[in-house]
Automatic annotation (TrEMBL):
It comes from Desmophyllum pertusum. Its main location: cytoplasm. This is RING-type E3 ubiquitin transferase. GO terms for molecular function: ubiquitin protein ligase activity; zinc ion binding. It catalyses: S-ubiquitinyl-[E2 ubiquitin-conjugating enzyme]-L-cysteine + [acceptor protein]-L-lysine = [E2 ubiquitin-conjugating enzyme]-L-cysteine + N(6)-ubiquitinyl-[acceptor protein]-L-lysine. Residues 1-70, 139-216 form the MIB/HERC2 domain.
Length: 469
């Protein structure tokens, strides 16, 4: 985090229209932590002329997002934008996660250069790792406003140019955003009248000579793709805890790129993809050590997905990736070919949108990855059920389902309709039917569940069955 960052309001914004309204851009002019301003806050001078202090990780809140970082002097020296051919690439670098060696600058990224269905990584620092941001089709764009061509401006916070503007209060017109002292996009050419024009600092390493009396529209931006100011230091500590069950669900190539400087990469780490491990350590940089049985590896915190506990009533879906399920099954009851019946089916059609994103490391609570792993835990883990059939009708129902006796399942359920989602050893009759590949029984249970749902029942069974068939 550096002075000069150009910012817009962020996810925890609660300051009304201090910024001039959503989309207005400001400049970080001072960092907290020097005694005057608290740690994890920053002072921002909005293009519209107001100045205030904001949270940049303070109390876990993020009032701001990074709109542009060129003004801090950030460049990616050996990287070319594959859109506009700019080299070095200036400011935030956007790397396609679906293509080999394809990068965009911020301007090209928001101009929708390249396939919008491809997922991207956001790279803030030249040696930094990519943060997965998903694909642009997932988001709507917002209009930016501020120091852009056509804006009307007057003297601002750091003005030190005497009467160059023709006197305090004079209005000029911004004609071009340009470099200042070798720092790209950090200056603005202003026309003050017929004869006077000059270039001024408009963000340059935290200096702003101007303010907008009438902001102009800039490029539209993908708000959700932008970094939260101050996010980096706090992210892993806030989100992850030692002892938590987690998984890494990105492709090996993406993981490899993100491991540079975060524990490194060796090819055998790819075996961990899709498996569930436990966090054994979080280091000072936030890198996460995950134990998989006897082995443990260090990962970038952003590739780590939490495994929430499975609860009755959760919405679940089956994942149509046999290889991934097989990986997950290692050490959890193994894989048998009959399980394939539980994969795919119609349930997968409604995953087409979210699925790709989740596999690229979306870690929000709504992520489809949650549903995937919940279901896998409930549906596929564990050994084959054993044991007697006497006693509780619910237990007998599960056992009948396990052994493939449709007739028994029917009879028990007719007599005890309330036992449909009875669990034996943590499994319902439907779980077991799927696990054992009893398609007929699973279909029967599903139709029963649907009837009961129409009669007002809710819960795990109905959700699971709706998604399965
Ligand atoms: Zn470009
Ligand atoms: Zn691509």
């Amino acid at each position: 985090m550096e002075v000069g960052l150009r910012v817009v309001r962020g996810p925890d914004w609660m300051w009304g229209d201090q910024d001039g309204g959503e989309g207005n851009v400001g400049t970080v002019v001072h960092l907290g932590g020097d005694g005057n301003v608290p740690d994890d806050t920053v002072l921002v001078y909005w293009d519209t002329g107001k100045q205030a202090n904001y949270r940049a990780g303070y109390s876990g809140k993020y009032d701001l997002r990074v709109f542009d970082s060129a003004q801090t002097g950030l460049k990616h020296i050996h990287v070319t934008c594959d859109g506009c051919k700019e080299v070095p690439l200036i400011g935030t670098r956007w790397k396609c996660a679906d293509c080999q060696n394809y990068d965009l600058c911020s301007t090209c990224f928001v101009s929708d250069v390249h396939d919008k269905h491809h997922a991207f990584l956001r790279i803030e620092q030249p040696q930094g790792n990519g943060i997965p941001v998903g694909k642009r089709t997932n988001f709507v764009k917002r209009q930016s406003k501020g120091f852009f061509p056509g804006a009307k401006v007057s003297r601002g916070r750091d003005w030190k140019w005497a009467e160059q503007d023709g006197g305090n209060g004079r209005i000029g017109t911004l004609s071009e955003i340009t470099a200042w002292n070798g720092v790209d996009r950090s200056g603005a050419k202003i026309v003050w009248g017929m004869l006077r024009n000059n270039t001024y600092r408009a963000g340059h390493q935290g200096s702003v000579d101007l303010k907008c009396t009438t902001p102009a529209n800039g490029p539209s931006y993908y708000r959700e793709c932008l970094a939260k100011v101050g996010e980096k230091r706090q992210r892993a500590a806030n989100r992850l805890k030692i002892g938590e069950r987690v998984s890494v669900c990105l492709e090996a190539e993406v993981l490899k790129a993100m491991s540079q400087g975060h524990g490194g990469w060796i090819d055998s780490m790819a075996q961990c993809v899709g498996k569930i491990g436990k966090i054994s350590k979080i280091d000072d940089d936030g890198d996460v050590q995950i134990s998989y049985g006897l082995q443990s590896w260090v990962f970038h915190p952003d590739v780590v997905t939490k495994m929430p506990s499975f609860q009755s009533g959760d919405q679940v879906r089956v994942f149509n990736d046999k290889q991934l399920v097989q990986n997950l099954q290692q050490g959890h009851g193994g894989w048998n070919e009959s399980m394939e019946v539980a994969l795919g089916k119609q349930a997968l059609e409604d995953m087409s949108g979210g699925e790709a994103t989740s596999r690229r490391g979306e870690t929000t609570p709504e992520s489809p990855a949650k549903e995937l792993h919940d279901l896998l835990q409930a549906l596929l883990m564990g050994a084959v059920l054993k044991g007697g059939s006497a006693g509780d009708p619910g237990d007998r129902l599960v056992n009948a389902s396990s052994s493939g006796n449709l007739q028994d399942v029917r009879e028990i359920l007719e007599a005890n309709p309330d036992k449909i989602d009875h669990k034996r050893a943590g499994k319902t009759a439907l779980h077991v039917a799927c696990h054992q590949g009893r398609a007929e029984i699973a279909k029967y249970l599903t139709s029963k569940g649907r009837q009961q749902r129409h009669q007002g029942r809710t819960g795990l069974f109905c959700n699971a069955s709706r998604s399965l068939w």
